Amino acid sequence: MAADPVSFLPALRPIDAQPAAGLAAAGGQAAATTDFGSWLAQSLDGVNRQLAQADRGLQSLATGEAQNLHQVMIAMEEARIGMQLIVQVRNRLLDAYQEILRMQV
Amino acid sequence: MNYLQAYAISGAGMAVEKARVDLIAVNLANAHSTRSADGGTFRPLRLVSAAGAADFPALLAGALRGPEVVEVRPLDTPPRLAYEPGHPDADAKGFVAYPGIQPAAEMILMLTATRAYEANVAALNAAKSMALRSLEIGS
Questions:
Q1: Domain limits of chain A?
Q2: Is A88 helix (H, G, I), strand (E, B) or coil?
Q3: Do A78 and B4 touch (CB under 8 A)?
């Protein structure tokens, strides 16, 4: 099987954009538009917004403005899941980093 | 984010059931009201809900929608006439028109609405535990 080794790994994109473009051209794929760093920043921003929304919900509940309880609870659950997702991403990232750090050169 | 769709749908279902219970509370509370704001006898209210219609972009994206409140409709049940000649709202023959509310039927509706609310909570919890479980992949 003379498979192209690059096409095996379509999801593996280097953080640096220039080598990614070179690899993608070699593999015959379209260049990735977003790198991992900006994706992480976007996700962090989203989680931050969810947390702020949950916080606002709690405030409106405390001040008696909340229309119904379940919307506040749902906002809090969304924020919790988003937070746990980003924590898991961070764990995997640190694991990979330490794995590379322990590598014998 | 697509994994939050179940949350939105269950939340819409909870909102509808809560509105239903609110209306039942109105009916039960007005069981002995002999007047209403528009002059006649109070008529028991029913909430009409429908599956939410998605707008065009949401339809294209294949998004699902939860139920929504369509309208609040007064029922056409005849008033219950009670003979109370001394009542200020009695008519010429001494009859007072009470709203045609059946407390047993209202209680049954309230129970089903409560159970439906609980079912929505259960569906939301199932979606949440699935999402949390997926975070355990690989760990």
A1: 36-102
A2: helix
A3: yes
B109 half-sphere exposure, CB direction, 13 A CA radius:
22
Interface contact flag, A81 B18, Cβ < 8 Å: no
What is the spatial distance between Cα A70 and Cα A74, in angstroms, rounded to a whole number? Answer: 6
| Closest chain B residue to the Cα of A47, Cα to Cα | B1
CB pairs under 8 A between A and B: 32
Question: Which of A46, A70, A81 has its CB closest to that of B11?
Answer: A70
Pairing of strands B80-83, B45-51: unpaired
A46/B131 CB distance under 8 A: no
Q: How far, in Å, CA of B50 to CA of B37, rounded?
A: 28
Contact residues for A44 (Cβ-Cβ < 8 A; gap 6+): A86
Q: Which of B7, B15, B135 sits opposite A85 (nearest CB)?
A: B135
Joined tokens for residue B50 = 């429908």
- Note the pLDDT tens digit of each residue in A13-60: 555 545 444 444 444 445 556 788 898 899 999 999 999 999 999 999
Residues of B with Cβ-Cβ distance to A46 under 8 angstroms: 1
Query: Which tokens belong to A71?
Result: 């919307």
> ipTM, 2 decimals?
0.75
Q: Please state, in angstroms and rounded to a whole number, the distance separating the CA atoms of residues B92 and B85.
A: 9
- pTM score, two decimals? 0.74
- Residue B12's H or E segment, with its range, is helix B5-29
